[in-house]
Amino acid sequence: MEQLLSRRQYTKILAAATGSEVGQLSRPLQEKYQVSIVRPAQKTLTMLQFREPVKASLFYLGEALCSECIVEVAGFKGAAVMMGDDFVKVTAAAVIDAAYNGMLPECEALDKAIRQLEKEQLAARGKLNAALRRSKVDFNTMGE
Amino acid sequence: MAYVAVKGGEAAIEQSLKLLDEVYQSNGRLEVQTILTDMPLLTDKVMSEAGMYAPEYAALALKQSKGSVEEAVFLLRAYRSTLKRDYYSLPADCKDMRIMRRISAAFKDIPGEQILGASFDYAHRLLDFSLSEEKGKQAAVTAAQETAADIYCGRVDELLQADGILKQPEKDDTQPYDITTHVLTFPAPRSARLQTMARSEAGFLEGVAYSAMRGYGAVHPTVSELRSGYVDIMIPYPLEAGEAICIGAVNVTEVEALWPVHEETKEEFDKIRLSGGYGCVIGNNETKAIAMSIADASLNTTGNTPSQDEEFVLTHGDCLEMQGFISHLKLPHYVTFQSKLDRVRE
């Protein structure tokens, strides 16, 4: 069995997905297991901490509107925090997180589906990236 | 000076609020999503000055405020105050940015190349009347057939550090000062300075930077690098210490500006070294980010000009505070003005 995606990896892919995509990924889990809501989806703020290069010091750029949710699936807790206010998406992401925490039998298929979603995300950005690369500039200075 | 409250006027105030919809009538066709997609630079400005990354809410605030940026910033700040802040991100770094645009005014050739991206820099400023007739125009980039990977690259300053021209700073992990929870005192920590300027009203900060370059200051830097794009935001995983999760990516603009400074050392009477100024703002706000880097640089010099006065720069640029203080002058001041009149008549 291929090594499962790390938490950093799958949360990044899920955060970049639409609500319906994340909902679709969690549907098999929601249909099979009883999902208990530990902390209902709610809005919250995350302070964005950045490091600047001039003095290599830290500062706060501002806050981001986020949603958070904690659930329990088959005795395993799962949590999700995501930018935006999509409660359905953040709840579905918490269900997926619980599945990873519990290494539930659906995990392998889930992991494959999330990897596929990442490929689709990269492909969707591919055309824009190509267009951006076409704006690569090479200025000539006078006399060259 | 004491203020005297006024009372009454409820019916007139209620009618005045109703008139906002009457006088500034909407044809009902402007959807929040349209503002978000068609006016991204405007929503970015609102988010930047509100200090809150929430594109949909910034667009909603603009719709509600009939296009007034200061009202939209007020709405976002007010809404933000109703929410709990449960999370602090792990330090993000723009060197890990997924690049949408990246240029250098200092070097022609930089590793990773210069990507002009979407920019008005070289556009002819001619009104395009065809836009009046435009209906559902497709973006030109959708015609591209080839695909390419995401663009990531290191910063230009790493080149200068490798050459020994620019000193590599030691990592400073001091917890940042938070101006949203603490009163700003002077001299302000660097983190407070950067946070304040990141939320500053763009016009104010640009005025400060412009004055610094025109002679009311001592810096005229070169933009070593300007980059904009998306930076992933990680926070500690709520259920397990030591783990981290990604909550999404924020669109930011970062500028690093360099200028030569003269210093006296044991070895050299007039040694020239490079110094840096830093700008980083939410969204695509290039002029503001450059202005921030100039203001940062200017505050590192000594002198008597406004751009070198930390208290002046940091206490007069907040959109909400400055607009609020100026706007309060149009509210009833009958008693205070009467007392002024009395003194004039004496």
Mean pLDDT over all positions of chain B: 91
Which parts of chain B are unreliable, with pLDDT below 50 for 5 consecutive residues or more?
none
Characterize the quaternary organization of these chains. Answer: heterodimer
Spans of chain A with pLDDT under 50 lasting ≥5 residues? none
Q: Helices and strands of chain A, in N-to-C order?
A: HHEEEHHE
Strand order of the largest sheet of chain B: 4-6-7-8
Rg value of chain A:
20 Å
Number of helices of chain B: 12
Coarse morphology of chain B: globular
Task: Kindly estimate the percentage of residues of chain A that lie in beta strands according to DSSP.
Answer: 25-35%
Question: Which class of secondary structure composition applies to the elements of chain B?
Answer: alpha+beta
The largest β sheet of chain A comes out as:
3 strands, antiparallel
Rounded to the nearest angstrom, the radius of gyration of chain B is 24 Å
Total beta strand runs of chain A: 4
Number of strands of chain B: 8
Structural domain tally of chain B: 2
Order of helices and strands of chain B: HHHEHHEEEEHHHEEEHHHH
The percent range for helix content of chain A is 40-55%
The most extensive contact between chains is: A-B, 60 and 89 residues
Distance between the termini of chain A: 58 Å
Tell me the count of domains of chain A: 1
Description:
The complex is a heterodimer of chains A (144) and B (346). Chain A has 144 residues and is of the alpha+beta class. Chain A has one domain (7-129). Chain A has four helices and four strands. In chain A, strands 1-2-3 form a three-stranded antiparallel sheet. In chain A, α2 (19-32) packs across α3. The radius of gyration of chain A is 20 Å and the shape is globular. Chain A starts with 6 loop residues before the first helix and ends in a 7-residue tail after the last strand. The model of chain A has no long low-confidence stretch (mean pLDDT 95). Chain B folds into two domains: 10-80, no CATH class; 94-119 and 148-315, no CATH class. In chain B, 36% of the residues lie in helices and 18% in strands. In chain B, a hairpin with a 7-residue loop joins β7 and β8. The relative contact order of chain B is 0.14.
